[in-house]
Amino acid sequence: MGNVLFMSMLGVLLCAVMWVLLRLGRRWRYYNQACDLLGEGGENQRAEALFRRAARGLYGTHRTAALAGVGLCRMQRGGYAEAAAVLEPLMAQRLPRAMRLDEVVLPGHLALCLAMLGETSRARHWLGVAHERFGGRVTFLVLPEVAILCREGHLGAALKMMEDCWPLLLADGRVCSRIRLFRAFAQWKVDPERNTDFIFMTLLSLAPLPEWEMTFCREHWPVLADFMQMGNELVARQEAQRLQREAEWAARYAERDRELAASNREPPKPDGDDGSSG
Known about the structure:
Elements: H1 2-40, H2 44-57, H3 60-76, H4 80-87, H5 102-117, H6 120-134, H7 142-151, H8 155-171, H9 177-190, H10 196-206, H11 211-220, H12 222-265
Helix pairs in contact: 1-2, 1-3, 2-3, 3-4, 4-5, 5-6, 5-7, 6-7, 7-8, 7-9, 8-9, 9-10, 10-12, 11-12
């Protein structure tokens, strides 16, 4: 009887363990799917939903990783305040061993969010934490540092840092649209006349800028919003000019077609008298 009871309890325990493992496996699949979507770009909202589902069923370092994914998705969609609120409590927690590099990256992302919000003192603190964790300067921390300098009005220092680091940023694939925006913004503030062509070319390549980014900057960083609006207006003017040129060409082709049609409808001229006599 005792053996039967023991085997029954063991069976229940094994079933419970299998259920937990299956549940964790399913949640971890949600996490991996969310990572894939985040890497592809353009699916941040769906990725965030998957990260949240994963976080509800994961524990320990894996739950920390899922919540970090939620914060990154919010940051990518311009929710800097929400992203900072998610990321900052995670700074004292550990990530899975395979994500040790992310423990350096996350304080940098938090610093960027805080810089965009104007919280430059807190941003500098977490940027310093990121540098300490890595043990030196790394290219993926240039962006938050540049954002802090620009936010504090040190545009010359920000521009010099980007110019000094640009070859390394290119080599490491860190020249993202945001750092290109900050570079053009700093040039616009430091010496707009000298850098006019470069600034306009950069704005044209980046615009139209996302409306959520414009909305955020109008509220939290109006000077940057004005600069970004210049890019959107440039694109709008170019588009208007393109449409006007197309309309002019269409009118010319239509006029030519009408002339050809009119010439084809004219009756042939009768043969003239050849001047011969009977």
